[in-house]
Amino acid sequence: MNSPILNAVFGGLLRMTEALMASAPTLLVGLAVAAILRFYLGADGTRRLFGGNSLRALPQSWAVGMLLPVCSIGVLPILIEMRRAKLKAGALSAFALAAPLFNPLSLLYGVTLSRPYVILMFAVGSLLVVTLVGMLWDRYSAAREGEDASVVLESEKDPTDIGVRRLFAVIGYMCRQLVGPVGVWTLVAALGVGLLACFLPWGALQHSINRDDWWAPARMAGVAIPAYATPMLAMSQLGMMFQHANSPGAAFILLVIGAGVNLGTIGWLARHFGTRSVAVWFTCLMVIVVGIAYALNRPLIPPGVTPSDHTHAFDIYTNPIHFLDSNVGAFAREKLAEKFGPVEQICLAIFAAMALAGASLRLMDRTKGDAMESVSAGSESVDTPPESTMLGYDRIVSSQVVGGTMIIGLIVISVVMCYSFYPAPEECMEEIRLIRAEAMSAALSGDTEHAKFWVPHWDQWSRRAEVGAFLRRGTITPYQRMQGFLLRKKLDLFEHELEHEHDDPFEIRGFVDDVMATDTRWRTAYRKPYGSSDEEVSVNEVVIPSDQDL
């Protein structure tokens, strides 16, 4: 049963399923935004929103993209509407690369991962790449891109429905797109993740991205092209790379290429702009990104951090199955259950209903089209359909009002999402209390798999507490930051010890006591932000930790 081919295929399908589940929330957002662009702003309003053909098109496109909580799959329906509005290739490139990289949630999360100026340099470097590549593509893109810019096809005309009919048209459009081009390119993007897992066996990247390895950025460039990562996943992997002192250049490539591009995006661009034009664009992108990565590789090495000999940050891109056995089905269900949270459950339920409705609507469209062709063939003229009458509640709303409301709404929603995703430290500590009980009791009872499941959640909630405190208080003391660093370092060491599966219960008890003591000091740091003399460890002892403590 343990055939290498079956192992690769099964692991690839599992990774594809995980990618589709992870992309569901942002894909739903992308479909909704695309429907608003089509039925409310129209082609003219969309061109104004993204800067049209002016000099501000590139920065305006990536600025709008940074307000949208979408991933590299979620941008696909929006790119379709931007193309329909006949925006330039550079604007599409800027939006496609910038939107998945940074949004308020991922930027705030990134502040907890490393020194803030490092994250700022990554953000500035990424936007520089986006702008430069967009300018180059606008300069050297194929001339046929603008040849027929003035020709408007019948299928590209703006819809004229208003009121309730427009709302139903929006829903119908989203359903049709899901079972149409957007669904197809989403599967292409997920296929890249599956192929990557097929060719990279379990644990293949644990020792390949070390900071002293000159080839680490180049290896990451090869992995990042077919990979798919949500903005939050890319940021968390960025943090693990800094925590284990991996290659900063490889981290930059993972952020720009891994989170910003997938095979679906590349395929869609090649379909609409030509293979040769996209090949030139992608070559320029890779040369610029890899060049910047090698330039940043040495200067951004974090001081005082001993490089780890391996990392699990990239296990998500390799085959999750070590070998096939009778328990592989239960293992697959457990892996998918970890990703199948309440948000994913709601989104997939909505997608199931949308797919059923979209398939029915497309079948009705085909039947209606055949009927219209038969009528046209049997008569020389067809009566012009009467103009739609306005219902009692229909109101004409200008594109400027809708566009301005949409932008303001995006900003407000982004702010609300930041405060919702990053609660106050007290709420985070309550969540950590439950997580801590699950992890520690599992470790003491010998259930290492259950303990390893909860330790990453403990790490994540400690970071969310740090960001939540910053949002509400405007500052994080060095004492709090260092205690957070120590806690996450202890959790990382504890997770590694769980992987060794110690048989001695007293040894595990010692690790548990060590983590609990560090967690107590971390919680005290938020109750007494500047420390006090009655704490277990003084501020001086924490600010300059010894190698043994780390």
Automatic annotation (TrEMBL):
It is a multi-pass membrane protein. Pfam families: ArsP_1 (PF03773). Keywords: Cell membrane, Membrane, Transmembrane, Transmembrane helix. GO terms for cellular component: plasma membrane. The keyword Transmembrane applies. The chain crosses the membrane at residues 20-41, 61-80, 92-111, 117-137, 182-205, 250-270, 277-296, 343-364, 401-422. It is found in: Cell membrane. The keyword NADP does not apply. Belongs to the UPF0718 family. This is Putative permease. It comes from Crateriforma conspicua.
